[in-house]
Specification:
Layout: H1 2-28, H2 60-77, H3 83-98, E1 100-101, H4 112-120, H5 131-134, E2 139-140, H6 142-155, E3 159-167, E4 170-179, E5 182-186, H7 194-199, H8 205-209, H9 212-218, H10 224-231, E6 234-239, H11 245-287
Parallel strand pairs: 1-2
Antiparallel strand pairs: 3-4, 3-6, 4-5
Helix pairs in contact: 1-11, 2-3, 3-6
């Protein structure tokens, strides 16, 4: 038992130091400095709308503040500007220029626990769905760009709902927001023709899907077969519901563990260490012998009772 406890406490001490070093790396390093092994970071293709200077907007609060400032400038230039129809367009333009297309994943430098567990379960669980973490990267996929935009609009009091596409030629993720009595469709990733959509007062996905010629004109940079397949198989999510609740809670929990896992090994090490020391003490007492001196008659220490 004592030998087992000695080996166990050594293993726990090694684990404690290992996970502590990983946590220090996450805290002190750049959040996106280490991607998932085997994943190549996307490269800008110079075809999408993209402004590298907007990389400074690396949190939802900064992105919202920037959109607020643009809206204030718009109101200053035109006092009759309507918030409900103008603000979503501002956010859409900013998000379209903030990212270029490509999935961002958690890795060893920003959530090593999530990356590890996702590699054994489902890879998609490590595709980032937490808006603030998505904004740590210059690229984002359709779902991630929509999540960022939905987050900002919901903070401003807008209703939003997911619009998913699951056609035989592939899937897609967009959303709608509600204002002025109806739903309006946004697709920040595939970037349909904004001027055309605005000319029709930013219609809903149902309006676009029911007019194939209009849809193909709005998405003329993509193959007609692909867009027809997508818009013939769309569905809605719940209003103001998380876009990917399972992935969201998986990432929240694993991020917490990435910062605290070392402490669990430290506590276990302390408990095993105490048990080991108690076992060592009991064993020492059990096998020790206390020897009392035996006095012999006539020795200097003996007491003579005869007078």
């Amino acid at each position: 038992m004592r030998r087992f406890l000695q080996i166990l406490q050594s293993g726990l001490f090694i684990c404690f130091n290992f996970f502590l070093l990983l946590t220090i790396f996450e805290v002190t390093g750049k959040g996106s400095s280490m991607s998932s092994p085997g994943y190549g970071a996307p490269v800008y293709d110079n075809k999408e709308e993209y402004d590298p200077s907007l990389q400074r907007l690396n949190s939802i609060s900064k992105l919202a503040d920037y959109c607020d400032s643009l809206y204030e400038e718009t109101v200053y230039a035109n006092p009759t500007t309507r918030f409900e129809s103008t603000y979503p367009e501002i956010v859409s333009d900013v998000v379209r220029n903030r990212f270029f297309h490509g999935y961002s994943y958690y890795g060893g430098g920003n959530n090593y626990v999530g990356d590890l567990f996702a590699s054994f379960t489902k890879k998609g669980l490590s595709a980032i769905v937490i808006a603030d973490d998505i904004l740590k990267f210059p690229f984002a996929a359709c779902s991630q760009q929509s999540i960022v935009m939905m987050d900002v609009l919901e903070q401003k009091g807008f209703k939003t709902r997911k619009v998913g596409f699951a056609g035989p030629k592939g899937g897609h993720f967009c959303f709608e927001t509600y204002f002025e009595g109806k739903w309006h469709f946004y697709d920040p990733d595939m970037e349909p023709d904004n001027r055309l959509l605005l000319a029709y007062q930013r219609p809903s996905v149902a309006f676009i899907a029911s007019r194939p010629a209009f849809m193909l004109q709005a998405y003329r940079q993509y193959p007609a077969e692909k867009m027809t397949s997508l818009f013939s198989h769309y569905f809605y999510g719940k209003v103001n519901a998380p876009a990917a609740p399972k992935a969201y809670w998986f990432q929240v929990i694993t991020k917490f563990l990435s910062y605290t896992l070392w402490s669990f090994f430290l506590v276990l090490f302390i408990l095993v260490r105490r048990r080991y020391l108690r076992t060592s003490t009991v064993k020492h007492v059990r096998h020790s012998r206390i020897h009392f001196p035996q006095l012999q008659p006539g020795s200097p220490g003996a007491v003579n009772l005869e007078y």
